[in-house]
Design a protein that fits this description.
Blueprint (H helix, E strand, L loop, with lengths): L1 E7 L5 H14 L4 E5 L13 E2 L6 H8 L3 H23 L6 E5 L5 H4 L2 H9 L5 E7 L1 H4 L2 H17 L4 E5 L7 H12 L1 H9 L5 H15 L7 E2 L8 H13 L8
Parallel strand pairs: 1-4, 1-5, 2-3, 2-4, 5-6, 6-7
Helix pairs in contact: 2-3, 3-5, 7-10, 8-9, 9-10
Length: 254
């Protein structure tokens, strides 16, 4: 089984993509189950096969520790490690091609907590990958694109697993915007031109410095444009994951 974690900033479309990608896989005869790792989510568009809320309740954490919602989210993220072995026992009962893992809305609750590294390793890090979602509203500006690259690079450093970059909600952008953003991911020179062709400000100067730093550590990767609304890009993501783990070999269908 491949564990595919969907990670990104709040509102980037992690939950929607988790649902859409599961439906796409099922429509193509592949077996994919879903796991929700956000104890604070109130509702989900899909029926999670494994739901962390069955082990960690945010209201109960708030009452037990006398904290507000934000503090409870942090405590709950750490409690996940305590319950991880129990969750793994349930996970092992499933037979699936992919486990699609929906991470907390606030990405730092996943990317910056040691508990997440423990969970990822326990669930088999050698068969794990991260789909990092680029918010389209932020990504269409050069400085915003750089900031997302920085967050993605930070995620890569935290977890020693492959990271695939995804331009989520691409349907809300014009075709020209999607093409330009994807070109930035493929050709760093075009991104540099976009950064330096704007009026110089402290923000652009900082972005240029970050650009050079990210270029030195080879943080640039091609983006896959995906839309959960019209299912575009789903096959591209599937093929990329299959290429990495299985050399491009297709899964057997049900």
């Amino acid at each position: 089984m491949i564990n595919l974690y969907f990670v990104g900033t709040a509102g980037s479309g992690k939950t929607t993509l988790t649902h859409a990608f599961q439906l796409w896989m099922q429509e193509h005869g592949f077996n994919a189950i879903t796991m929700n790792l956000d104890p604070g989510v109130e509702s989900l568009p899909y029926s999670a096969d494994i739901d962390v809320r069955e082990w960690v309740s945010l209201p109960e954490v708030m009452e037990q520790y006398g904290v507000g919602p934000n503090g409870a989210q942090i405590i709950a993220a750490d409690l996940l490690a305590v319950k991880a072995k129990e969750i793994k026992e349930v996970l092992d009962e499933f037979e699936a091609d992919y486990i699609l893992i929906d991470t907390p809305g606030q990405m730092e609750l996943f990317t910056l907590r040691e508990s997440s590294k423990f969970v990822l390793e326990l669930f088999n890090s050698k068969k794990s990958a991260i789909a990092f979602l680029f918010d389209p509203v932020l990504a269409r500006m050069p400085a915003g694109f750089i900031s997302l690259l920085l967050l993605c690079a930070s995620t890569q450093f935290r977890f020693d697993v492959p990271v695939f970059n995804v331009l989520a909600k691409s349907d809300i952008l014009s075709p020209e915007e999607v093409e330009r953003i994807v070109e930035w991911s493929k050709d760093s020179g075009k991104l540099y031109d976009a950064l330096t062709n704007t009026k110089p400000t402290m923000q652009t100067q900082a972005s240029v410095e970050l650009f050079h730093a990210l270029e030195r550590i080879e943080a640039y990767k091609s983006l896959i444009a995906i839309s959960s609304k019209n299912n575009s890009g789903m096959e591209d993501l599937y093929n990329l994951v299959q290429q990495f783990f299985f050399g491009g070999e297709d899964l057997s269908k049900d």
